[in-house]
Amino acid sequence: MIHWYALVDCNNFYASCERVFQPQLQDVPIVVLSNNDGCVIARSEEAKALGIEMGVPYFKIKPLLKKGKVKIFSSNYTLYGDMSARVMDILQQHCADVEVYSIDEAFLLLNFYHQQISDLQNYGNNLQQTILRGTGLPTSVGIAPTKTLSKLANHIAKKISKTPVYVLTPNDPILRNIAINKIWGIGAGYQRRLKHLHLETVYDLQQLPEGWMHKEFGIVGLRMIKELKGIPCLSLEEPITVRKQLMVSRSFDQEITTLEKLQEAISIYASRLGEKLRQHEQETQHLTVFMMTNRFKPNNASRRTHYIKTIELPLATSNTSELINYAYQLIQQLYETDVAYKKAGVLAGRLQPKSSKQLHLFKSLNNQKKMQTACKVMDQLNKKMGRNTLYYASCGPQPKFKHRQNFLSPKYTVRWSDLLKV
Q1: Distance between CA 119 and CA 115 in Å, rounded?
Q2: pTM for this entry
């Protein structure tokens, strides 16, 4: 029995989320900016047509944005995350086997549907319309016998087909016109090597002997060509339930030059890191602190833009006071005078479950328990009364993450005060 995979992808997801609640923007060019309104991270099709590139800094395209009458939005991740959850909920209602691949796309294993192309097409159409009615978000659906082909089918549905749903088979003539760089997993290096061999389309790659592909490109290349021929090698992946790393980082709304302000910022980030570790019932053995300057305008003699240092902790911990203490040590070693820092963060590595903690000969177990109790009480109070009801003095007089979000839209679905009034 042939299994079929579907890839459901939300079209221009961030921009589409903004349009759901402002339908007057339906044909208006839209760009969404990153944290602190730094650079473009999402574009509508109309914005792409104006030549606005992904990742370009906002200050570089201000004249173009004004000339093209482009609507600008600051990133509203709370709204986007909630809209994503609504889409994934609909998918899970329609299919038992779902792999959430990213915030705006998911794979489905359709192993209980008839093999007729018309049945699969009808299923995809129904799913696409259900998501549109339920969330207002437009999607493209690609259906094929393998995950790699379903990615190509989704590309065809989004860019080539007249309908938002496309069912692709390995011998579909359209593959003769699809460039190799559209294949899932083909990067710039692979593309150069294949182009040197005069291989330019998906069809060209399908014709290669599997043995030759294995010899030249290894097991990854072999799996790829098998998938393109309709032989499944990639199954749905289980969701990741145990984290291997945790990070808290932010760009500053204004550049920081003093050690005192950097210490306040890193204390806030270490506090948030401790909350996350305790929430996941994990502890860290490694702590990394990093700082960055604005790479678009180097402001020190060495033109250095990245500062990073790691420390191995004597005992794995999630205790906020210990994390702040170690972060302080690292920030003092990294800090250089006469340098303007734009971003900083803390990274917890070598995470381990709280229940399997390796004790230390020279560390008091009673003291550890007291600190754990203190952190637990702090977490409970902050959860009940609001974040930063109780905090460490090293975080400054009013600890908060400051963002520059001059174009932020309301959080329509997750904040009572932002609900639309009809």
Answers
A1: 7
A2: 0.78
Burial class (CB in 10 A: 0-12, 13-18, 19+), 398: exposed
CB-based contact 401:273 (threshold 8 Å)? no
* Angstrom distance (rounded) from CA 405 to CA 412: 16
CA 210 to chain centre: 34
| Structure token pair of residue 299 | 């402001």
Helices (H), 348-406: 365-385
Q: State the CB neighbour count (10 A cutoff) for residue 268.
A: 25
Confidence of residue 165 (pLDDT cuts 50, 70, 90): very high
pLDDT at 13: 94
pLDDT per residue over 3-57, tens digit each? Answer: 899 999 999 999 999 999 998 999 899 999 988 888 899 999 999 998 889 988 8
Give the contacts of 106 (CB within 8 A, at least 6 positions apart): 7, 8, 87, 88, 91, 98, 99, 100
Contact in structure between 264 and 188 (CB atoms under 8 Å) = no
Helices (H) and strands (E) in the chain, counts: 12, 12
What DSSP element (H or E) covers 355? none
Q: What would the DSSP string read from start to end of 40-77?
A: EEEE-HHHHHTTPPTT-BGGGSHHHHHHTT-EEEE--H
More confident residue, 66 or 70: 70
C-beta neighbour count of 24 within 10 angstroms: 8
Bridge partners for 107 per DSSP = 7, 99
Other residues' Cβ atoms within 10 Å of the Cβ of residue 258: 11
Dist. CA 80–CA 408, nearest whole Å: 12
Residue of 94, 98, 92, 90 whose CA lies nearest to 235: 98
Give the start-end residues of each E strand in 85-229: 98-102, 105-110, 139-144, 165-167
Q: What is the DSSP letter of 420?
A: P
